[in-house]
């Protein structure tokens, strides 16, 4: 069984720069010094965290646009609202995660220089900051249209999941599944923006295709975040942090392959339920399966550099395939191509 390769100092610095909450170059260099820790807390640079949150919202939005035959202007307006809401959600959840994780982050090389562990921001100041960002996200709910009360009801499970997520690392090895539920709840909000509800409060009917899309997104997250998590495996084992990499270690690729098969099946199931065309099957089903299959086959889980490279590709390319196929289907229906 392979063992994790100890990252070099240069590797640790690069990984901290990429998503470690310690980035201070580029446009951040022009900010007042006392602003910097708060921008780092919110992971505003690089903005990878924002797109982790926004992509599932986009899945739900475009899928609902197909179902509702929404006009491009309606889709664009909803997309702008969802991006604004995602901005505040991303800020809030990253700050909250750092508040709860601070004692654990201090034990992990890649994260020990984040603002709270290094003492640049107090936990109380960070709590006020995350509360302000949560309020900012909540202000977008009434703008989504439809019944404002239902919007709040359907957003509540996502809020509760995000509250719990950082504690999951202390309670369950299935942390990546919890994160998948958190992020994929954005699909519900995205679909809700165009009037597609996951569950009818009046009839009790569950929207099966939307549930399948939610499931596929959750499993996709489990794969790419587990690959990401292998960067910290050695430190996580020593610190007692729970995760799928800690549970399965280097046997996890078997789990990945099962997830890839189920992702392909659920995406194909959506196509069957909604009578999608060949572009959807080729791009969303085929493209996503190919991207994730390549990642699982070729990532070297003992190498931090390989894990980072494949994590980013597994996110952008697979996520882009899901969006691309849905957009192609929407375009073909709306413009009768």
UniProtKB/TrEMBL annotation:
<dbReference type="GO" id="GO:0005743">
    <property type="term" value="C:mitochondrial inner membrane"/>
</dbReference>
<dbReference type="GO" id="GO:0008412">
    <property type="term" value="F:4-hydroxybenzoate polyprenyltransferase activity"/>
</dbReference>
<keyword id="KW-0812">Transmembrane</keyword>
<dbReference type="InterPro" id="IPR039653">
    <property type="entry name" value="Prenyltransferase"/>
</dbReference>
<dbReference type="GO" id="GO:0016114">
    <property type="term" value="P:terpenoid biosynthetic process"/>
</dbReference>
<dbReference type="Pfam" id="PF01040">
    <property type="entry name" value="UbiA"/>
</dbReference>
<keyword id="KW-0808">Transferase</keyword>
<keyword id="KW-1133">Transmembrane helix</keyword>
<comment type="pathway">
    <text>Secondary metabolite biosynthesis; terpenoid biosynthesis.</text>
</comment>
<feature type="transmembrane region" description="Helical">
    <location>
        <begin position="279"/>
        <end position="299"/>
    </location>
</feature>
<dbReference type="InterPro" id="IPR000537">
    <property type="entry name" value="UbiA_prenyltransferase"/>
</dbReference>
<feature type="transmembrane region" description="Helical">
    <location>
        <begin position="116"/>
        <end position="141"/>
    </location>
</feature>
<feature type="transmembrane region" description="Helical">
    <location>
        <begin position="173"/>
        <end position="196"/>
    </location>
</feature>
<keyword id="KW-0472">Membrane</keyword>
<comment type="similarity">
    <text>Belongs to the UbiA prenyltransferase family.</text>
</comment>
<protein>
    <submittedName>
        <fullName>UbiA prenyltransferase</fullName>
    </submittedName>
</protein>
<feature type="transmembrane region" description="Helical">
    <location>
        <begin position="48"/>
        <end position="66"/>
    </location>
</feature>
<dbReference type="InterPro" id="IPR030470">
    <property type="entry name" value="UbiA_prenylTrfase_CS"/>
</dbReference>
<feature type="transmembrane region" description="Helical">
    <location>
        <begin position="314"/>
        <end position="331"/>
    </location>
</feature>
<feature type="transmembrane region" description="Helical">
    <location>
        <begin position="208"/>
        <end position="227"/>
    </location>
</feature>
<dbReference type="GO" id="GO:0006744">
    <property type="term" value="P:ubiquinone biosynthetic process"/>
</dbReference>
<feature type="transmembrane region" description="Helical">
    <location>
        <begin position="75"/>
        <end position="96"/>
    </location>
</feature>
<dbReference type="InterPro" id="IPR044878">
    <property type="entry name" value="UbiA_sf"/>
</dbReference>
<feature type="transmembrane region" description="Helical">
    <location>
        <begin position="254"/>
        <end position="272"/>
    </location>
</feature>
């Amino acid at each position: 069984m392979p063992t994790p390769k100890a990252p070099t100092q240069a590797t640790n610095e690069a990984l901290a720069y990429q998503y470690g909450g310690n980035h201070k170059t580029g446009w951040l260099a022009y900010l007042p010094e006392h602003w910097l820790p708060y921008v780092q807390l919110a992971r505003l640079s690089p903005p990878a965290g924002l797109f982790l949150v926004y992509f599932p919202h986009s899945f739900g939005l475009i899928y609902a646009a197909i179902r509702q035959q929404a006009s491009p202007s309606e889709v664009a307006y909803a997309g702008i609202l969802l991006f604004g809401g995602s901005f505040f959600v991303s800020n809030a959840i990253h700050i909250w995660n750092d508040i709860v994780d601070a004692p654990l982050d201090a034990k992990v090389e890649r994260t020990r220089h984040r603002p709270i562990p290094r003492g640049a921001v107090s936990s109380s100041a960070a709590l006020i900051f995350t509360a302000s960002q949560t309020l900012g996200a909540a202000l977008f709910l009434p703008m989504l249209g439809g019944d404002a009360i239902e919007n709040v009801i359907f957003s509540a499970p996502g809020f509760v999941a995000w509250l719990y997520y950082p504690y999951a690392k202390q309670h369950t090895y299935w942390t990546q599944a919890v994160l998948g539920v958190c992020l994929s709840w954005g699909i519900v909000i995205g679909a809700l923006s165009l009037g597609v509800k996951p569950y009818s409060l009046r009839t009790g009917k569950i929207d099966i295709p939307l549930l399948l899309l939610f499931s596929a997104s959750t499993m996709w997250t489990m794969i790419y975040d587990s690959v990401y998590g292998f960067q910290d495996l050695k430190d996580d084992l020593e610190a007692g942090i729970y995760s799928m990499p800690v549970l399965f270690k280097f046997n996890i690729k078997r789990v990945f392959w099962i997830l890839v098969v189920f992702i392909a099946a659920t995406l194909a199931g959506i196509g069957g339920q909604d009578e999608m065309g060949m572009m959807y099957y080729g791009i969303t089903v085929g493209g996503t399966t190919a991207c994730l299959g390549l990642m699982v086959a070729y990532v070297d889980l003992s190498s931090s550099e390989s894990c980072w490279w494949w994590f980013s590709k597994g996110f952008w390319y697979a996520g882009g395939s899901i969006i691309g196929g849905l957009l192609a289907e929407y375009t073909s229906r709306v413009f009768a191509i």
